[in-house]
Structure formats: C-alpha cells, structure tokens
Design brief:
By secondary structure, this protein is mainly α. The chain contains 2 helices and no strands. Helices cover 53% and strands 0% of the residues.
Length: 58
C-alpha cells in the first residue's frame, strides 16, 4: 500500500506554485529562494542550503 504524506503533498504543491509563478529559465538559486519563501508561507519550516564542515582523515 502506498502511503501519501501530507508534508510531501504540500512541498510538491509549493514547487508547482513557484513554477507557475516564475516559469522556466531562472538560475537554481532564484528557484531556491522562491521555494523557501513559499514553503514558509505554507507553514513549513524551511531553510536554504547550509554549509557543513567535512574532513577527510588525511
């Protein structure tokens, strides 16, 4: 049985709304900013990419 997540449906809905509003052709960073704002408006806790420090054992 396939389980539908209400959070996933909300995220997909926000992504579709951003695509409808701004259309194709923008840089990825513009879509990230728009989607982050749309997710926050929808009441979801969203943030843009964050840097994490990774170290190789060398």
């Amino acid at each position: 049985m396939f389980y539908r997540s209400s959070v996933a449906e909300r995220v997909i809905g926000c992504a579709i709304e951003v695509h409808r509003a701004v259309g194709p052709g923008l840089m990825e960073s513009a879509y990230q900013a728009c989607l982050t704002q749309e997710l926050r408006i929808a009441g979801l806790d969203a943030s843009r990419e964050e840097d994490y420090g990774f170290f190789l054992g060398r």
